[in-house]
């Protein structure tokens, strides 16, 4: 990369194989998705005891469900007897227990083995040792975050810190009381691109003028190419004649009760590594969770969250939803186009980041450090 | 697996990767399916000289056909000249020879090279060296068993011994004169599970109460979880009010002529390693052949065999067939559910076998010994 | 291969894994398709400045387009900024430049970086270093031949030499003035076979009597099994009652103006390594380009070329096209049938070449030398 050495303006990206190599993806699964806090399920989706969702985290199918005392539990979705997948549906509800449909081993909502055929004839069996594998769970912002590590990292130093670093303080997001909001719409996108393409795309706005006509209409400063994520504590200001964060700039819903004057008519965005992207506007929150399934495939679940009264009243949210739905589709098309060429010799040493993209370099460094490729990274820089 | 060490009741299973690792499957292909006797084709399916079937055995397409003197031959299904697949159909009939459709090299029904264009201009060519690759064949129970090994193991010490070990003597199966029976129905199942899942499922009945309501109705003792294969020489007895081995317990066909009084109203089952499962009831035989195609895919051909008079008379066999067809579907659903979770860290060291499943451990040991993984097995146990 | 040692008539082929092993295919991509001259695009398909085609060469998507001064350029189809695929369509036309649809980096038709958002704010960026990656291009016979090597081999010593070696002089093909011809018909075939199967098939005629009834009717000598490619400078003669190179031997178009008397009523064929097959008959040319996509998949684009007046007049070419279209389909069926069995132990050491196929051995040696497997080849021969 002689180019990057001859220029202050340009920084190198990750090399192309980071986006295609199954060995790199395997490292990301074992050392990122299976060790960091992973935003798995919206808490309200499993409101009643016995309701559950199954989600893919790294290489594991994870069963996230509501317990009898209202707590959320997460388990590896595998029977301890002969390894049958316990729940095969994406969501459902059980009464008091999870029963394996193969040999009827039965687990309480807390994961404990409570019954199995002929179990009374095996007095030496320690039921305590044969419960479902428990995983760490934290609730925040109305979502259940799961960690597959035996010794999870500090939630505050990772998840909360990512929000704080971007907003200039974690308390800033408190104003939106995200956990209290209701789901207006959810759209799931199946994208043929590596998860890092999608993260990088979210982080920069150098592409906004080219592919996001509606967004730059609402947020004129985005036409200059500097993303909200480029700054600390910066909210992009609505255009003068824009009334709301909608596809045509028409009025949105009422401002959320806690949103301060300095946050009004502004758009904030942040990435929570490794797989969450949150967007805050005065009247709603757009919350993305990414589920990396393969080196070249990522599922994205995007929630549009509003004040419960707005959702309950049946207000027409279509123009509000359409704005970011269009932005998503425009972005994911671009990501898929990049994915196609990651194997080219032209990208073997990577490409370049312009100044308004330089902060992506920190994300690249974070990935390399996590998967233990620091040395290679240093080699390249020298 | 500290669990298994602390309990007499529980034995360990194979580790999960045995069911998913392509390297393990490759070993199973080369060291099990391509070295043991493999039950390939029902003899009656190739009754006339020149009729043939092609079947997949391990990594090879095998051509099994009836010769001019009525003998059955098996060949690698490959032309010796430029390697074209000789027969691409699953079944067919030729007159006197197999002719390669590419360059017309022509082989007799005995596999000898008998003609090729311009062959007379190549006097130095030894036709004897250029015949089709012959494979060992044995007929037993009305099926052609093929062995791809250069030096096949003793048929008696493997195939026959497996039957004898289960029934307490090979002569017991003689009473059913399986070779004399006619095909009533054949159903082929395409199952997304490792072949060993299917073998293990056939071997135990701990799941019967949970997934086989019709079967446990007919064979009430199965509700206790002990399979016929758990014992030696044991036939599971029909329920008192059961008249036949049918989906609703209604009357079946007449008892087969040779079936003795001690075998009447009883169900016997046996596994012939590596890929056959035979079920004997007084009026018919259900004969499964498994064709492992991939670590997570197995084709199963299941034959319902009856006395020739029964088939010839057009007797309604639907209730008789429906019983085991339902059992098959129930079993294969369970196997597919297990296959899904074999990759989980929760099953990385395997699961557990309860007492009524302990005999599966011998099958696991047999697999490990065949593929040369004894050492690893001993390591795990210590 | 004791067979081949005991016989002068039989020579060994490549071993079966040469046709299935992804590692061999990777070597062929990097050391053959990405280093040799590759016949990529028919020049007339990109007649106007700004018209382009995208083609797969080895592992690369290549953009071949007409420049402003009428020259043909070839580039790696990848933006230098973040690696987006520049053109995703198989063909198209731009006005003055290629603009990346992600961040609007813009390249001239000559590949130079001419604009990018905020580029003026990065005065230290050397645009000259950030142009599209240029590839070597040569036009010959009306086609653009592209070479991905930094230091391409001599076009004359490879492409032209292959033609000359077969015809006994490169000037022989001049008589057909191939570059002046017009496209009558193009048919694309998607073949489930390794590219070498297809080359080998084109090189020999031992199969002609078996699978090409129409062709041997028109060229009776082909029934003896000796291909035009077996000889130097030999054209296969039309049958006495054959009037033209058509599916039924009926009259074709008028003889091409430059075709000499010694070339009349004759069929010439040649392979230009690695991926072109050219057929010359008095009134037209059949030109095959192969695009190897996977060890077991090759795309073949076949052009039927006629005198411009013939195409312009709307003459019915169907019987002329049908002859080689049938030949193609017959050949590709045979290639697919061979591909099926390349993995068999029966072909692990390869098969045999009869005398009329011996010249294929030189192609095998060429492949082995290119991919650096000479040693293994010598080992096998000793």
TrEMBL record, chains A, B, C:
Keywords: 2Fe-2S, Iron, Iron-sulfur, Metal-binding, Oxidoreductase. Residues 39-146 form the Rieske domain. It comes from the Bacteria. Coiled coil: none annotated. Its cofactor is Fe cation. InterPro entries: Rieske_2Fe-2S, Rieske_2Fe-2S_sf, Ring_hydroxy_dOase_asu_C_dom, Rng_hydr_dOase-A. GO terms for molecular function: 2 iron, 2 sulfur cluster binding; iron ion binding; monooxygenase activity; oxidoreductase activity, acting on paired donors, with incorporation or reduction of molecular oxygen. This is Rieske 2Fe-2S family protein.
